[in-house]
């Protein structure tokens, strides 16, 4: 049905210039699972030019050959092909340095001997290193020319620590060369949200309180702590997922049309959404938020332990949160936006489900169900539109809801690039559209901070939910109080 689409050429973008990409934290989980695979892919496709170099910063005493063997093993485990891995390894070298100490960066400085190349430093390190690392790189003279600095999330753990990082970074390089990653922005379907909204007049005209009853944004994961127990237990679901990924989805969903696709035009509109979010403060957290922590349960028939067992101790950290938000603007006034995210849920699913208002008057005996548009971010990325149809042959116009299901893979075929593939090449190209500007990050913390303060005062203990469910019953109660119910994501067997 969508065969003709597969023959359309992909849009051309400006070529990626030759670069030196330096990764601090090159032996870490993020580098091994996300950054290296993305680079293998981009190099094998010829997107990153051959002359480019990847330099990993490590602190261990292991030899370069040993480090490369370790990287090759991890990449093979992830299903990447040996010739592609070899091609990546030819461009990869390591230097030993402490990224927070400029005195240790002599070798790195010597390695970066071509000022004509685009130079980017990726801090895939614990976030408490962002300030000392930025200063040390500056002190070593490495942030000159057109150098770029890439910062991973989470940027701080509240507004004041985020500001401190942003201030320190601003002292060593301008905002135009600072790339704050939120990898959700690199996901194809998240970018498709811009196209869906602003390249189709059909939707934009209905995109407001006039036609939309409510919106549900779900980012559900089946994984638990993985190997990040210490990090996660200090952070929790609100800081780990809502402050960044979930609020970014909300921004792209709700923002006004930007005048152009320029980085600042898009980011100006996103920041307006964040600033218009109605604060949830004090005791309101009991009404408009839910905290949860998973107990033992089963996912897809497999038993999984509870959070405290995985962690090895009791904890008051939330692994699930649901919020009822409102955006105080003319476009969105009165439209509840329900957000929920959690670990160890019944299915992995990220989606934005939009429920439109019911018809004002039904001329049928059956009441038509409201139209629903589901923007599926992952898995099975695509767009589903539910509307009412007549049951064929039904004499009295019997109505049923049916869904038009447009899936990315069916529409386009081929492989969908991982978010980091897109983001890494955007840094090298110098395109900041899919990166968070400092005011965005700070506005997001400005919304999240009062919730955390309210939790500390009034809501210290999260409710329990069984692993494999979609969160605690209190989250169901929160939406049912409004006479609505959660859209249950499809559970995969
Ligand atoms: N892993 C993930 O899926 C995600 C991670 N992130 C963020 O990415 C960053 C990295 O996370 P992750 O890879 O999981 O963490 P890891 O703990 O696995 O890796 C951290 C890396 O930083 C290195 N490092 C620490 N201190 C220094 C230093 N002073 N100088 C040089 N290198 C140093 C470590 O080297 P050494 O081995 O010598 O200690 C290690 O390679 C964090 O900010 C995290 O929040 C964000 C999203 C997802
Ligand atoms: O940033 C993070 O994202 C992952 C989820 O990313 P996804 O691309 O797999 O949806 C999450 O598991 C992790 O806790 C968080 O730090």
UniProtKB/TrEMBL annotation:
Pathway linked to the protein: Carbohydrate degradation; pentose phosphate pathway; D-ribulose 5-phosphate from D-glucose 6-phosphate (oxidative stage): step 1/3
Pfam families membership: G6PD_C, G6PD_N
Residue ranges constituting the Glucose-6-phosphate dehydrogenase C-terminal domain according to the UniProt record: 194-486
Signal peptide stretch: none
Glucose-6-phosphate dehydrogenase NAD-binding domain: residues covered: 22-192
The keyword NADP is annotated on this UniProt entry: yes
Gene Ontology biological-process entries: glucose metabolic process; pentose-phosphate shunt, oxidative branch
Domain of life: Bacteria
Record flagged with keyword NADP: yes
Keywords (A to Z) from UniProt: Carbohydrate metabolism, Glucose metabolism, NADP, Oxidoreductase
Catalyses which reaction(s): D-glucose 6-phosphate + NADP(+) = 6-phospho-D-glucono-1,5-lactone + NADPH + H(+)
InterPro entries named in the record: G6P_DH, G6P_DH_AS, G6P_DH_C, G6P_DH_NAD-bd, NAD(P)-bd_dom_sf
Sections of the chain in a coiled coil: none
A single cellular component GO annotation: cytosol
NCBIfam families xref list: PRK12853.1-3 (NF009492), zwf (TIGR00871)
Name of this protein: Glucose-6-phosphate 1-dehydrogenase
């Amino acid at each position: 049905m969508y065969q003709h689409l597969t023959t359309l050429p992909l849009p051309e973008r400006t070529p990626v210039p030759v670069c030196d990409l330096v990764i601090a934290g090159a032996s870490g989980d993020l580098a091994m699972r996300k950054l290296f695979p993305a680079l293998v892919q981009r190099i094998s496709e010829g997107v990153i030019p051959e002359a480019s170099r990847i330099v990993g910063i490590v602190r261990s005493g292991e030899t370069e050959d040993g480090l490369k063997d370790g990287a090759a093993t991890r990449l093979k485990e992830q299903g990447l092909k040996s010739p592609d891995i070899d091609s990546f390894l030819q461009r990869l070298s390591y230097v030993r340095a402490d990224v927070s100490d400029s005195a240790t960066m002599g070798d790195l400085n010597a390695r970066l001997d071509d000022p004509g190349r685009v130079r980017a430093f990726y801090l895939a390190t614990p976030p408490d290193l962002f300030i000392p690392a930025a200063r040390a790189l500056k002190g070593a003279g490495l942030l000159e020319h057109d150098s770029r600095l890439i910062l991973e999330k989470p940027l701080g753990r509240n507004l004041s620590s985020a500001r401190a990082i942003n201030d320190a970074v601003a002292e060593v390089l301008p905002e135009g060369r600072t790339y704050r990653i939120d990898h959700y922005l690199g996901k194809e379907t998240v970018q498709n949200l811009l196209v869906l909204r602003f390249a189709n007049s059909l939707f934009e005209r209905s995109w407001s309180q006039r036609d939309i009853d409510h919106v549900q944004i779900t980012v559900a994961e089946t994984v638990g702590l993985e190997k990040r127990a210490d990090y996660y237990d200090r952070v929790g679901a609100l800081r780990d997922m809502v402050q960044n990924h979930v609020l970014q989805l909300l921004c792209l969903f709700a923002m006004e049309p930007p005048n152009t696709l320029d980085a600042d035009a898009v980011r100006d509109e996103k920041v307006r959404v964040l600033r218009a979010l109605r604060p949830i403060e004090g005791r309101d957290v009991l009404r408009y938020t839910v905290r949860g922590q998973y107990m033992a349960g089963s996912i897809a028939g497999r038993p999984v332990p509870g959070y405290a067992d995985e962690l090895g101790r009791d904890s008051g950290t939330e692994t699930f949160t649901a919020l009822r938000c409102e955006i105080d603007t003319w476009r969105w006034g009165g439209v509840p936006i329900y957000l929920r995210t959690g670990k160890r849920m019944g299915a992995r699913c990220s989606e934005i489900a939009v429920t439109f208002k019911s018809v004002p008057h039904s001329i049928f005996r059956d009441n038509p169900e409201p139209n629903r548009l589901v923007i599926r971010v992952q898995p099975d990325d695509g767009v589903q539109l539910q509307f009412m149809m007549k049951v064929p042959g039904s004499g009295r116009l019997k109505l049923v809801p049916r869904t038009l299901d447009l899936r990315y893979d069916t529409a386009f075929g081929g492989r969908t690039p991982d978010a980091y593939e897109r983001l890494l090449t955007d840094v090298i190209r110098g395109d900041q559209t899919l990166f968070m500007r400092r005011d965005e990050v700070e506005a997001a913390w400005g919304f999240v901070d009062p919730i955390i303060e309210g939790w500390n005062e009034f809501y210290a203990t999260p409710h329990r939910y069984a692993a494999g469910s979609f969160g605690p019953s209190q989250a169901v109660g929160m939406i049912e109080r409004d006479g609505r119910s959660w859209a249950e994501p499809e559970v995969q067997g």
